[in-house]
Each structure stands twice: as C-alpha cells, then as structure tokens.
Design a protein that fits this description.
By secondary structure, this protein is an alpha+beta fold. It has a single domain, classed as Jelly Rolls, CATH 2.60.120. It contains seven helices and twelve strands. The strands form three sheets. Strands 1-9-4-11-2-12 form a six-stranded antiparallel β-sheet. The protein has a four-stranded antiparallel β-sheet with strand order 3-10-5-8, with no helix packed on it. It has a two-stranded antiparallel ribbon with strand order 6-7. Helix 2 runs antiparallel to helix 5 and helix 5 crosses helix 7. The longest helix has 24 residues. It is globular. The N and C termini lie far apart (42 Å). The N terminus and C terminus are likely disordered.
C-alpha cells in the first residue's frame, strides 16, 4: 500500500480499520467523502438534462406535461409512469457532463484512491449513472463481479469501484448488496442474462455465502474491489435512487490513457502476447493524480468530454458469450462497433 504526503488541511484518509475491512471483506463504506456542495453541480446538470428531455417529449406529444413541480428524487419517477424511454436514456454512460469530471477528481476521493492504488493513479471513464426508477424490470442488476466485464489479464489486480449515491440509498429504494469475503475466491463463473443486458453469477457459485445490504447516505461512498460480488434489487419506493459508480486503478496496470509509461509499468507491445491495451479497452482511461508525471494529469472537464466523445472503440475479450455483437443497451439498441472491430 502506497501513500504520499500532501499539504492540504482537509486531506481525507481511510482508517486502519476501514482498510482492513476493505481487504478482508472486499468492501467498506467511507462516510462524508463529499459535501452537499460537491454533489449539487452533478444534481443540477442531471436535472437540466432531464428537464430538456421532458420538454422535448412534451413538444413531440410523447408526454402530457413536464412534471417540473417535482424535485430531483421524484420527477423522473412521475415522468416514467407515462414514458419510460426518458429514464432509459439516462441510465448507464449515455450522459457526458462536465460535473462528472469534477466529481471524479475531487481531492478527498483521490486521497482514498491513492491509499488503495498508489500515487500514480488512473481514473477510468467506466462511469455509470444509475437512476433506479420504481418497479422497472431493467433497473435491478443481478449478482456479478466487475472483473467479469474486464480483461482476464487484470483479474487479480486491484481496480476500485466507487459507488456513490446522489440521494440516501436504502434497502427499500435499491441500495447495493455485497457478499463479504467472496472476492478472495477470484473471478466466479458468469453468464449473460436472458436479455443479454447483464452478466450473472448463479447463487450456488457462492457456496453458502449470503449477501448483505449496504445502505449508504448521500455524501458517503461504498468502495469495492473488482472481484467483490454485488447486486441491487427492485426499488420499492415512489422515489428515484440516483447513483453513480466510478473506477480507479494503479498506473502500473494496462491502460489506454495517453501517458508516458514508467519503468515497471505494463506496456502493450506486439511481442507481449496476451497483454491488453487496457483493463477495459472499450472505454478510455486518464491520469488523475501523479507524483512522477504531473504534467500529464488531465485537468479540465473539456478534455474529459472530448476524451469520451472521441475514444476509438476497442472490443474487450469475450469470455462469457457476452460479445458486443450480441449485446444491447438498456433501450434495446445494439452496441455500435467500428468497422475495424467487425468480423
């Protein structure tokens, strides 16, 4: 574990007990990482996007009214009763907003990530926006490990998932569940679900281990390893459980971030068969904190937005029969594959 000193008075640190729980159980909740002021720009930009989509739907006759009298936690639920295409259009990585970059680069969050991953820190653009709308059959996410979606080469390395709610998450509105300690068994067998939306671990793979709910308050975060089995179930309330999940890794691992590689870091070259260009090549990485190459750290939201929009798709290894050619997004549309990656 690598840490580095910093002069900031508000430097955040996971406690020894939290670090022990993370490594022993595969997860830990870190409280009060973000303030309301940290999260409000994200909420505001999402709300503006929702308002735009609602008004467009009203103008097209696809929605009777815009429901602007309802707040962030209820408006989408009201809209969704009439027209569920709007909620589906905001699920996953469909929005690219400047506030997402500012959230991903908050110093207090990066302090915690540096404790776990070291000072040469890669943030992945594998971010996901999750508006879990009440009673939607597509918003529950089955038991899985994030590593199942990544390159096998990176299975036993650490890629940290940061799951952060934008409202309080509870068992009633669909907080995450985890299986403590199951990350030590490595990557379990997965298979695509019936609609080919998600990968699934059957519960008999857990050999009797039981899942536990992990409620997380707004401003706090759930940290998990890439091998921690987790799931979320139906939202049984009348509000929307808004959340995001982000991912970070040490720069020593394969990465498609446009950075110089240092001694000891993995470099993909033709002679290195089996070494992927990144742990998740379909989406772009970027350097978010560095002691040895600070001039290569991404600094602006404009760079982030351009990175997301211009990244050339590179297919990941398909080890579960979950090929991009067969996958569809939450709206049922096929994933787009550039000609270079088509058979």
């Amino acid at each position: 574990m690598v840490t580095s000193a910093a002069p900031r008075a508000d430097r955040f640190a996971l406690t020894p007990d939290q670090l022990k729980q993370f490594h022993e159980d595969g997860y830990v909740v870190a409280e009060r990482v973000f303030t309301n002021d940290d999260l409000q720009p994200v909420i505001d930009e999402i709300s503006e996007e929702l308002d735009r989509k609602a008004r467009e739907a009203v103008a097209k006759g696809e929605l009777s009214r815009a429901y602007e009298e309802f707040g962030f936690d209820r408006r989408l639920a009201k809209i969704d009763r009439e027209n569920n295409t709007i909620s589906k259009s905001m699920w996953d990585m469909k929005l690219i907003l400047p506030s997402f970059f500012h959230l991903m680069t908050k110093p207090r969050l990066l302090d915690a990530m540096e404790q776990l991953c070291g000072p040469e820190l890669i943030a992945s653009s594998i971010y996901r926006l999750r508006p879990k709308v009440p009673s939607h059959d597509w918003s529950p996410v089955p038991w899985h490990q994030d590593s199942a979606y990544f390159e096998p080469y990176c299975d036993m390395s650490l890629i940290v998932t940061v799951w952060l709610p934008l409202v309080d998450s509870t068992p009633e509105n669909g907080c995450l569940w985890v299986i403590p300690g199951a990350h030590k068994a490595g990557v379990l067998r997965h298979h695509p679900d019936q609609r080919n939306h998600y990968l699934v671990i059957e519960e008999d793979e857990f050999e009797g281990r039981r899942g536990v709910p992990v409620p997380v308050k707004k401003g706090s975060v759930l940290l998990m390893t890439n091998r921690t089995p987790h799931a979320s179930f139906e939202n049984k309330t009348d509000t929307v459980r808004w959340s995001m999940d982000l991912r970070y890794q040490p720069a020593v691992l394969p990465t498609n971030a446009k950075i110089s590689r240092l001694k000891g870091e993995t470099i993909t070259a033709p002679e290195q068969l089996g070494v992927p260009v990144a742990c998740n090549p379909p989406e772009p990485d970027f350097l978010v904190r560095s002691q040895r190459r600070p001039n290569e750290v991404m600094r602006t939201a404009e760079e982030f937005v351009a990175l997301r929009k211009n990244h050339p798709y590179q297919a990941a290894t398909d080890r579960w029969g979950y090929s991009v050619a067969k996958r569809t997004d939450p709206m049922g549309n096929p994933y787009k594959v550039p000609k270079a990656n088509q058979g």
